[in-house]
Amino acid sequence: SRRRHTRFLPVSWARRCVQETDLRHVNKVKNLGPTFDVKELYTKIPSIEIEDVKRDENPSYDLENMIEQMLGVQQSRGAFGAYTPATLYSLLALQDFKENYPHKVNATRFEEVFQKGFNYVEFMYFDQGDSSYKGVLDDGRWWDTLLVAQGLHEIGENSSKLEPVVDYIIKYGIQPNGGLAYGWEFEYMPDTDDTGMIISLMIAINKEKYKDQIEKSNDFLISMQNKGGGFGAFSKGLEESFLVRLFAGKFINSAEIFDPSSVDVTAHVLEAWGTMGYTVKDFHVSEAVHFLKKEQKEFGGWQGRWGVNHIYAVGAVIPALASINYDLKEDWAQKSIEWLIKIQNSDGGFGESVLSYNQEEWVGKGYSTPTQTAWALLALIEAEKAGLDVKDAVDRAINFLIEDHKELGRFLDKSSVGTGHRGFLYMQYPSYANSFPYIAIGRYLKLRGIRSVSYTHLRAHETGRNLVCRLLLEKKKKKIIQ
Q: What are the residues facing 426 on neighbouring strands?
């Protein structure tokens, strides 16, 4: 299918490039001297030898066919695979082919491809103004937008003011099959994670208005569930292949070429199903729960696939279970909560870094950040609602968010919170600090029975420095946290 073909293409052509087009032989290597040797990154300085590659006068049929396939999957705005690194590597491969086999190249077509590709990279790297997203790997506007909208809704923003946001996402982000694309250039492969989250948002904002779209998007989700009950992000059934591993060779460790079921994606879909009224009595729901239970680590947590890392996963799983009215006092669910309590930092916050993917001693450890603390709170709040003794941990975490917000008058998180390729590529999401803490605060207010005030109203009457504090005060200024 096109879905699978497009995802496997970069691996197949990358292996061929080393053999025949040889990306190392594009005259782009230059010794910049000791000032730029980055020796501090190595425990053992690598020795890299660049050799000329003997080429036939004409490319092989396989290589020529592969180049043709590459040209065919360039996206409308110029990207290959929707990522700037993938686009740059693709352009390098095409340039190498053009230089070595000019008689096999349609010059006009190649020039158009190069121009579109460079325009995309220039837009992503340099044309973002003062935005925090200047120089990013990809465009994730629909994901970011729905998260911020969810945060605004949770802290009391009027639904009527958020409907235009949802309408905009539906018009430009949701694809004909009902799935939501992550952002620009991901239209060819909408993903289940974003789709689950937008369903939850549509139900929260105006369930009746978006009834048809909710049903269509849910049909997409059900069609994407893997055997075993879990969900990959973009593909169904793309979990493992011995032949692909064999043919990918040494590139297997350079990128995640499979799209296996992951805990965080499955949890977000499960939470959406809970908002729709499904319960564990429904087969597809029980299968998803079975997958989550099976994937749990011995210490009680789960590894996060698309977010860093175990705290993120627990913060997705527990709210998902709560949404389907699952008993959080069951041993395996309670075990994850006990783990959160154990790793809470002395300042009340939570933290975890990318080191936790490769070094077990760093699991659940790191300096406190608003994003990680919010993820933990999402789980702890549901645990308290279920009757577990976590009130002190919840209040300490909320106090951390208050103090953190006081310092700058806003939430700021410069840590890597997104996972592209585990052990290889991580991402910073400025939107996370502007969404997840507000989602957690909004749910905390509901937990304590406190009426929240519209974010727009607060912005009109309060300084940013006092915003979070105001959210945590009764109308008569009665403090709820001593």
A: 419
Structural contact between residues 10 and 255, judged by C-beta atoms closer than 8 angstroms? yes
324 Ramachandran zone, left/alpha/beta (phi>0; psi -120 to 50) = alpha
Give the count of beta carbons closer than 10 Å to the beta carbon of residue 54: 5
Between the two ends of the chain, the Cα-to-Cα distance in Å is 59
In Å, how far are 126, 407, 410, 445, 466 from 463, measured between CA atoms?
32, 13, 10, 20, 6
Single-letter residue type at 462: E
Neighbouring C-alpha atoms within 13 Å toward the C-beta of 38 = 5
Residues 6+ apart with CB under 8 A from 302: 263, 264, 292, 295, 296, 310, 313, 314, 317, 336
Separation CA 401–CA 438 (nearest Å): 10
Residue 50 in tokens:
């660049």
Name the burial class of residue 198, with classes exposed (0-12), middle (13-18) and buried (19+) by CB atoms within 10 angstroms of its CB: buried
To the nearest 10 degrees (0 to 180), the angle between helices 192-206 and 211-223 is 160
pLDDT tens profile 323-350 = 999 999 999 999 999 999 999 999 999 9
The answer to whether 349 touches 291, Cβ cutoff 8 Å, is no
Asked if 253 contacts 273 with a C-beta cutoff of 8 angstroms, the reply is: no
Tokens of 308: 């860093």
Q: ∠ at Cα 375 (331, 295), nearest 5°? A: 45
Spatial separation of the C-alpha atoms in residues 420 and 417, rounded to whole Å: 10
Q: How many residues does the chain have?
A: 482
For the cut 60, the answer to whether the pLDDT of residue 40 exceeds it is yes
Report d(CA 317, CA 463) in Å as an integer.
Answer: 35
Per-residue confidence at 474, pLDDT binned at 50, 70, 90? very low
**pTM of the entire predicted model:** 0.83
DSSP percent split of the chain into helix, strand, coil, nearest 5? 55, 5, 40
- Distance, in Å, from the CA atom of 284 to the CA atom of 279, rounded to the nearest integer, reads 9
Residues in Cβ contact with 482 at an 8 Å cutoff, skipping those fewer than 6 apart: none
User: Catalytic site residues?
Assistant: 193
